[in-house]
Amino acid sequence: MPPTTNASDRNHASPPDYARAGRLGIGTPQANPTVEAEIRRLLPFDVDYVTLRLTSFSPDPATRLKAYLTDLPQHAKQFAGMKIDAFLFACTATSYLLDTAAQDRAIAEAQAVLGAPVITAPAALMAQLHAIGAHRIALVSPYPAPIMTAGVRWWRAQGFDVVCQGGVDIHSYDTVQVYGLQSADAWAAICQLDIGNAEAVVLSGTGMPSLPLIDRASAHFSVPVISSNLALAREGLKRFGLTPVLYDRH
After folding, report:
1. Rounded Cα gap, residues 156 and 115, in angstroms
2. DSSP letters spanning 143-157
3. pTM
4. What would the mean pLDDT of 59-76 be, rounded to a whole number?
5. Exposed, middle or buried: residue 111 (CB in 10 Å: 0-12, 13-18, 19+)?
6. What is the Cα–Cα distance from 21 to 46, expressed in whole angstroms?
7. Does the first or last residue of the chain, that is N or C, have fewer Cβ atoms within 10 Å of its Cβ?
8. What are the structural domains of the chain?
9. Residue 16: helix, strand or coil by DSSP?
């Protein structure tokens, strides 16, 4: 007589209805409307994602950006034991402003809470640049000057040659103004750049829409153009042996 299989065993053996390929966690700054919109357009149907909002009450942009990561171990408790395969920390400027020891400590503590690796946006960008063998980069962002300066310094400390830098003016020192930009604003600024001998263009920042202009900018500059959100999606999907789906870039 064959062994019986109870409902619990059947449920355990059955594939999940959702997230059949895997599930990503995403942390996005509190007022950022772009991360989820772009990640949703990049993930294959069978890859699910869940989002938590990174919050800070500080009126100072630099303090707020740093708190998003230093407070991540607490934010991560929102998932309350939910299984995820990797967590995408979708704030690029945080790494530019936070010292390495504090960043490493926050990531380690958050990983212990999540039970999954944490991938920061700059780490994802670096992985993509290493994959294409790009050492000389043009750095483009919508950051206020102090954060852009910190970004250039950070990239050079990682061993990259920042041969050109350019920005999209938000007319403010508060990074929350980034979230009102559209890809057309970015295009108007970056198409005027002379990137010299740069081997890639890095669109740094998760808040300004970038997917609609990546192909156009790559053709214009004749080098790869990589954005923070695209890099995060690519690195997250590597966990499942997948690549981003085609998306409406126009």
Report:
1. 32
2. --HHHHHHHHHHHHH
3. 0.89
4. 94
5. middle
6. 5
7. N
8. 11-120+232-238 (3.40.50.12500), 123-227 (3.40.50.12500)
9. coil
